[in-house]
Give the backbone structure.
Amino acid sequence: MIYYVLFFTILLFAVLLDVFKTKQLNTYEKQIFVLLSFFLILMSGLRLKTGYDFESYKQIFESVKQSSWNSLFSSGWGLVVEPGYMILNYLCKWMPFQLYIFLISTVSVFIKVLFIYKISNNLIMCLFIYYSMYFCLYDMGVIRQGFAIGLLLWAFYYYIEGKRGKTAIYIILASFFHSSSIIFFSIYLIKDKVYKFRWYAVTLILIFSFGGIIEEIIYKSNITFIQNKYWYYINQLADNDESIVNSIIKRLIVFLLLLIIVDWNAIKRSEKKYKIALNVYFASIIISIMFYMLTIIGGRGTGALQFMQVFLLPIIADKRYIRNNLNKARLIGILIIIVLSFYSLYTVINSHSYLPYHSILS
């Protein structure tokens, strides 16, 4: 745990300096971001027996080593693991598993921090939130989905750039690594418009009322792969009801915080990414409620949609976007960000199923 807390403290210190506009930090913000990102890549790539699914992925890798191309998808892990990840294992089966972990971790973290670098106006705080809320869960815990989320972030990037074809390509590619990525196609329904509070409230009430209908359709589906995935995750994640409830509550808190404190009329047309991201984040709440009982979709399956808070929350620290009568709320908002970040990190690393950090160097 000492490694996690140490890095959290370093990032928190950098965030506080950034919030209070320390000139030295502003001058070297990009260099500091690159340096800290490099340490995240090393931390992820050099890990050993860490996270939720390390041993499972090792079993997949060893199983693929013994498989021929013809038998890759016909039995065992091939029935429940997406073809993209199986093919990647097959192409890399000549190398040691630890080298494979290093390579896929490097790529997975790199494409996320590059996304943050390209899209964010507050690099340090974004990195702090990413580390606390996502890095330990996805990039240290669930390799396959962590990689898929990185691809989906670039689908979002191309969506706000107006390149709808590239958006679809990245979503399809991500779905070959984690089938829940198909949910990200919902982004095509999202507009760069912040609606009135009552619109969001009525939508939530309706979803709470009829949320179980789609899950019932999946349950009765006759598609073999979907049924295999459904029952696999129902059996594996049956005890996660409490965690998804906590996740929904945290998302609602963050959403209300953004909706109340931020003056969305101050967001320029050139910064429509924030308004789109707000509605993408709201979509993560809706889908979480709709698939409450199927946590692989309602929880981790909405990870890429939920990731929007990584660059949405720093708006609260930006005086340009705070409502005139709520300047004091900015400090409260920053405090809430820190508390939520610490709580998210603590919840993950103290989970009974999360293996503590070990490095191949130790």
